[in-house]
Amino acid sequence: MGHAVNDDVVLLKKEFNVTSRRLFDTLPWAMQLNCKPLGLHALCAIFLGWRISKGLRTSDWNRNELSENQIHYACTDAWASLVVYNEMKRVASESGCTLPLPVESVTDILDTRLDSRRKRRHRLVQNYKARKNFAIMAKVAERTVE
User: Fold this and answer.
1) Of 102, 104, 67, nearest to 85 (Cα)?
2) What confidence score (pLDDT) does residue 48 get?
3) In the structure, how many helices (H) and strands (E) does the chain have?
4) Where are the domains of the chain?
5) Using CA of residue 40, residue 46, residue 48, residue 52, what is the dihedral sign?
6) What does the pLDDT look like over 20-49, one tens digit per residue?
7) Of 1.10.357.10, 3.20.20.70, 3.30.420.10, 3.90.550.10, which CATH number belongs to 6-116?
8) Across-strand partners of 105?
């Protein structure tokens, strides 16, 4: 479980062939509960009343050895995700809100991404066709006015 874990799960599968199952991601839950903004930093403030430091988020995470501060940040990030998750569950339960089910596997994440790309591509094609039709109609209208 974690916050916005899709990219991490896909990377673990691609780089290390590690398959995750039944993933609880607090990001869809935050969306369901209409939280704004949606980042873990903000969710800590919303649900826990305190903030975690974002300072090391942009440090060099590709180094062979992480600094002690980076390790501390990563541990805090994972721990905060769990604490937020538990609090979100409590709030949802008290308010009678139904939260999204866990993602069953990395395959589901990849399928969802592929479906999103298809839908986006379809929207782009439809928008292109609509703009093209509008341009044709504008030319026809222009000739009719002349």
Assistant:
1) 102
2) 92
3) 5, 2
4) 6-116
5) positive
6) 777 888 888 888 888 899 999 999 999 999
7) 3.30.420.10
8) 21
- Residue 64's Cβ-side half-sphere holds a number of Cα atoms within 13 Å equal to 0
Q: Do 104 and 22 form a contact (C-beta atoms < 8 A)? A: yes
- Cβ proximity of 43 and 35 under 8 Å: yes
Report which of 37, 30, 70, 34 is spatially closest to residue 54, judged by C-alpha positions: 70
What confidence tens digit (pLDDT) does each residue in 45-76 have?
999 998 887 776 667 888 889 888 888 888 88
Please say whether the beta carbons of 20 and 12 come within 8 A.
yes
Could you give the residue ranges of the DSSP H alpha helices within 23-67? Answer: 26-32, 40-48
What are the φ and ψ backbone dihedral angles of 44, each rounded to 5 degrees?
Answer: -60, -45
SS (H, E, C) 83-106: HHHHHHHHHHHHHCCCCCCCEEEH
Closest C-alpha to 24, from 78, 76, 73: 78
